[in-house]
C-alpha cells in the first residue's frame, strides 16, 4: 500500500512551485502504482533497495542524507527539544535553520573556489 504518496507529491509540488523532479523512497514504495502516482505530478520516483544478501550494517545509497540533515539541525539548541507551543513556530525555525545551513555551505564553496 502506498498511503498518500500522490497527495504528498501534490503538496510537495505546490510548496516548491513544481521544482521537484526526483524523489527517493524506501522499499515500501516499490511498484508501478507509486511510480505512476508521483509521475502525475512530474516527479520521478527512485526506490532505494537493500542488496539481496545482507550481513550486518549495510549503508543504503542516499539514505544518509536525511540522517545527516537531522544531525545538523539538532546542533541548534532551540530545535533540540520541543519548546514551541505552535507548530507554525517550529516549522519556521526549521526553515531558518536549514536556510542558515545551506548559506554556510554556499559560502564555504565560494571561498574554497576563490
Offer a quick outline of the entry.
This protein is mainly alpha-helical and 114 residues long. The protein is built from five helices and two strands, in the order H-E-H-E-H-H-H. The N and C termini lie far apart (50 Å).
Structure description:
By secondary structure, this protein is mainly α. The chain folds into two domains: 49 residues, no CATH class; 52 residues, no CATH class. The chain is built from five helices and two strands. Strands 1-2 form a two-stranded parallel ribbon. Helix 2 links the parallel strand 1 and strand 2. The longest helix is centred in the last third of the chain and has 27 residues. The N and C termini lie far apart (50 Å). The mean pLDDT is 84.
Q: How many distinct beta strands?
A: 2
Total discrete domains = 2
Distance between the termini: 50 Å
Could you say which overall geometry the principal axes of the C-alpha atoms support?
globular
State the low-pLDDT regions, or none. Answer: none
Radius of gyration: 17 Å
Look at the helices and sheets and give the structural class: mainly alpha
Q: Beta-strand percentage?
A: 5-15%
Give average pLDDT, whole number: 84
As a percent range, the share of helical residues equals 40-55%
Query: How many helices?
Result: 5
Largest sheet: 2 strands, parallel
Spatial strand arrangement across the major sheet: 1-2
Order of helices and strands: HEHEHHH
Task: Quickly list its features.
54% helix; 114 residues; mainly alpha; 2 domains; globular; two-stranded parallel ribbon; 2 strands
Amino acid at each position: 500500500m502506498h498511503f498518500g504518496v500522490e497527495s504528498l507529491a501534490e503538496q510537495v509540488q505546490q510548496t516548491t512551485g513544481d521544482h521537484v523532479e526526483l524523489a527517493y523512497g524506501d522499499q515500501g514504495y516499490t511498484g508501478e502504482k507509486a511510480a505512476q502516482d508521483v509521475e502525475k505530478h512530474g516527479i520521478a520516483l527512485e526506490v532505494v533497495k537493500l542488496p539481496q544478501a545482507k550481513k550486518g550494517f549495510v549503508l543504503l545509497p542516499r539514505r544518509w542524507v536525511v540522517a545527516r540533515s537531522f544531525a545538523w539541525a539538532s546542533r541548534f539548541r532551540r530545535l533540540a527539544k520541543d519548546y514551541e507551543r505552535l507548530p507554525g513556530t517550529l516549522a519556521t525555525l526549521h526553515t531558518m535553520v536549514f536556510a542558515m545551513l545551506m548559506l554556510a555551505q554556499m559560502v564555504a564553496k565560494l571561498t574554497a573556489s576563490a
